[in-house]
């Protein structure tokens, strides 16, 4: 397969979602031209990417472009792909909420399943099947009623929601097009990953928002469903760290922060395209890297960019860029925690321990709070527990998670406390 290596043009569907926003920052920092598809909405829906979209300096030279489109409209997908001819497509668009998929089952299938097919077909219609790499955001929800613990790439699927069924179709159609048309297409089977940018309707964000409000005296209680439901909650950041690209960045940050050469080599002032070359040095070869960086600095390369590793999703990029052959990978932290543990960690961060009493009452510090126990109207079928084994991705990309569960909760809590202080109505 021959690829257009000289062009770096990414198309991201779901660009204004949690992952899409992080991926945009990451790709822009790597010098990509980034295009994203957004849906027309009756109110603003670009808050996660406004800093890239409205600030001309954030996207350095107008390399960030948004297009109106929809995964349910194949003609717009063909037009956008035909016009921009992306070298990489990251399909992150989805009706991504499991519970909502029970209410919007047909629509979820249209977007998550058939939408993926539309996108793959649009690539073929535009004659780009041998020059465009394709990444599909697949999900641990495919495992549903778990038959095997932990789950790997070989664990049989048993989807238990319209969302998971739709994503299962997408998973297989990606493999089918890879094999039938020799396309470079891969699935990342992602376990839950959270961050301050997580959608407000997802349980982790619901917890951190409400606990922040309780902390600030803006709310009295938090209502939750199944407290015993367990998930593998990674930090979105961690889907980056220890991968080949971030090895370099981490090294740079360490040097800059406290290394003996930190004053000589201001690594935040290494020219962008120079950094790109450095990026691809073998991971772990730190001394060689340092010498090269030092030399470049001495040569006076100094026009400069911030090379902060943005959060997330570099792993998507690694799956697409560093893989020599397209394959499918489980991406997960390997640790599971219950919803109850998440709540406890959120309060612990505020210095308050919870004493759970029976089903609905507990103590928060010295105060009593009342909580809902199980919501009987909620479909419980999807609430099976998860346990992951991401050793294939770990071996391939030398990756292991760094952010601990309490750190993840802390990051989200701090962000929501700040948010609520600024805007109590948020
Ligand atoms: P979000 O829900 O935050 O983002 C979903 C994105 O898809 C939004 O930008 C949304 O746009 C867009 N979208 C929804 N419907 C359509 C449509 N019909 N046409 C075009 N765009 C549409 O999800 P995340 O960023 O958290 O997740 C990214 C992907 O990864 C998703 O596919 C998700 O299913 C998958 N995934 C995520 C996991 C996680 O823990 N975060 C775990 C496993 C898989 P709008 O703002 O207009 O609604």
From TrEMBL:
Keywords associated with the record: Lyase
Domain NAD(P)-binding: from-to ranges: 11-241, 319-412
Swiss-Prot/TrEMBL GO biological process terms: 'de novo' GDP-L-fucose biosynthetic process
Record keyword Lyase present: yes
EC number per UniProt: 4.2.1.47
A single MF term (Gene Ontology): GDP-mannose 4,6-dehydratase activity
Keyword Protein biosynthesis (UniProt): no
Required co-factors: NADP(+)
Pathway annotation from the record: Nucleotide-sugar biosynthesis; GDP-L-fucose biosynthesis via de novo pathway; GDP-L-fucose from GDP-alpha-D-mannose: step 1/2
InterPro entries linked: GDP_Man_deHydtase (IPR006368), NAD(P)-bd_dom (IPR016040), NAD(P)-bd_dom_sf (IPR036291)
Similarity field: Belongs to the NAD(P)-dependent epimerase/dehydratase family. GDP-mannose 4,6-dehydratase subfamily.
Record protein name field: GDP-mannose 4,6-dehydratase
Organism of provenance: Rhamnusium bicolor
């Amino acid at each position: 397969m021959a690829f257009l290596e000289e062009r770096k043009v990414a198309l991201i569907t779901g660009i204004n979602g949690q992952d899409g926003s992080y991926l945009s920052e990451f790709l822009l920092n790597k010098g990509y031209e980034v295009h994203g598809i957004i849906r027309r909405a009756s109110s603003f829906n670009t808050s996660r990417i406004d800093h890239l979209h409205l600030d001309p300096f954030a996207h350095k030279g107008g390399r960030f472009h948004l297009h109106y489109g929809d995964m349910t409209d194949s003609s717009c997908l063909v037009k956008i792909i035909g016009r921009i001819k992306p070298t990489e497509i990251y399909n992150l668009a989805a009706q991504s909420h499991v519970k909502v998929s029970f209410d919007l089952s047909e629509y979820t299938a249209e977007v998550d399943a058939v939408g993926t097919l539309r996108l793959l077909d649009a690539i073929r219609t535009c004659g780009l099947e041998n020059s465009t790499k394709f990444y599909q955001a697949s999900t641990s929800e495919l495992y549903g009623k778990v038959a095997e613990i932990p789950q790997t790439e070989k664990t049989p699927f048993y989807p238990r929601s319209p969302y998971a069924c739709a994503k299962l179709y997408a998973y297989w159609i990606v493999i089918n097009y890879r094999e039938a048309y020799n396309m470079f297409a891969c699935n990342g089977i992602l376990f839950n990953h959270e961050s301050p940018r997580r959608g407000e309707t997802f349980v982790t964000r619901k917890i951190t928002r409400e606990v922040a409000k309780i902390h600030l005296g803006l709310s009295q209680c938090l209502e939750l469903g199944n407290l015993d439901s367990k998930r593998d909650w990674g930090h979105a950041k961690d889907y980056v760290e220890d991968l080949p690209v971030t090895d370099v960045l981490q090294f740079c940050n360490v040097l800059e922060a406290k290394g003996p050469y930190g004053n000589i080599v201001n690594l935040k002032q290494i020219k962008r395209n120079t950094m790109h070359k450095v990026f691809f040095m073998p991971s772990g070869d730190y001394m060689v890297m340092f010498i090269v960086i030092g030399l470049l600095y001495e040569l006076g390369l100094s026009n400069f960019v911030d090379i902060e590793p943005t959060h997330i999703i570099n792993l998507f990029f690694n799956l697409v860029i560093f893989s020599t052959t397209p394959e499918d990978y489980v991406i997960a932290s390997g640790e599971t925690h219950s919803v109850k543990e998440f709540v406890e960690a959120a309060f612990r961060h505020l210095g308050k321990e919870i004493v759970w009493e029976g089903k609905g009452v507990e103590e928060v510090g010295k105060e009593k709070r009342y909580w809902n126990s199980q919501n009987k109207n909620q479909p419980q079928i999807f609430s099976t527990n998860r346990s992951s084994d991401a050793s294939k991705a770990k071996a391939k990309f030398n990756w292991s998670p760094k952010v601990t569960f309490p750190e993840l909760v802390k990051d989200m809590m701090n962000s929501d406390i700040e948010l609520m202080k600024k805007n109590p109505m948020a």
